[in-house]
Design a protein that fits this description.
Length: 259
């Protein structure tokens, strides 16, 4: 059984794609068979792994809109245990294109099901919004990982995504759960520390112990088309994501089963 994790937060600039890419890469480095699916029209998850958006005619767009089998859109990466399904610029209009299609919110789930058992983890990178693409990511998932920047408006944004998760649980995906909240872009200052303390106090065991720091090397890695562990394995950013992967596998157990 695979664990399908959706990385979601409707707020931009919180380290969502950085978390999706580097968590997936860190799971792969631990020899967990991992598939990263990019459903963000910006296509940054793919470019961070050296696959430029639109350099292939087979992407998640063709899967969702044309019924292309997901297996035919899978690309290999530099990491032996990490595969990628890239995004496409055409995803910008995908929400309108499928708006009147029956079962539109479950198209990704239907596409993932035939290939899921080939992987221990399937990681889905969503857009920074709560539209139909993110809804597809939540309906397809077994769990949600929420990246949260330690800043003033963090709790307000967290409330929005948690509300959306509850709506999905009440409807198309009753088994959905929050696998964890990961604190990202942490700087050692009073405000960040206060926000982190408040989040831990409010959400207790849902918050991962691992904290992802602000790190220049993390910011540089995508421009080289590499996850941080292939760019600078000794950096604090890389070590933090490796630790997060260990924490994720510790929580979920072997092959992504809930521990």
């Amino acid at each position: 059984m695979s664990r399908i994790l959706t990385i979601a937060n409707q707020k931009g600039g919180v380290g969502k794609t950085t978390t999706a890419v580097n968590l997936a890469a860190s799971l792969a480095a631990a020899e967990r068979r991992t598939l990263l699916i990019d459903i963000d029209p910006q296509g940054n998850a793919g470019s961070a792994l050296g696959v430029r958006r639109d350099d292939s005619a087979r992407s998640i767009y063709e899967v969702l809109l044309d019924g292309l089998p997901l297996a035919e859109a899978v690309r290999k990466t530099e990491l032996k245990f990490l595969d990628l399904v890239p995004a496409s610029r055409h995803l910008v209009g995908a929400e309108l294109e499928v708006a009147d299609v029956p079962g539109r919110e479950a198209r990704l789930r239907q596409a993932v099901e035939p290939v899921a058992d080939a992987y221990e983890y399937v990681v889905i990178d969503c857009p920074p919004s709560l539209g139909l693409l993110t809804l597809n990511g939540l309906v397809a998932a077994k769990g949600v990982v929420i990246p949260l920047q330690c800043e003033y408006y963090a709790l307000e944004g967290l409330a929005d995504i948690l509300r959306t998760i509850e709506l999905v649980k009440a409807g198309p995906n009753p088994g959905l759960k929050v696998d964890g909240i990961v604190l990202t872009m942490f700087s050692a200052n009073n405000l960040a520390t206060q926000v982190a303390d408040e989040i831990r106090k409010t959400f207790s065991k849902q918050v991962f112990k691992t904290v992802i720091p602000r790190n220049v090397r993390l910011s540089e890695a995508p421009s080289h088309g590499k996850p941080i562990l292939l760019y600078d394995v000794s950096s604090k950013g890389c070590q933090s994501y490796l630790e997060l992967a260990r924490e994720v596998t510790g929580r979920l157990g072997r092959a992504g089963r809930a521990a």
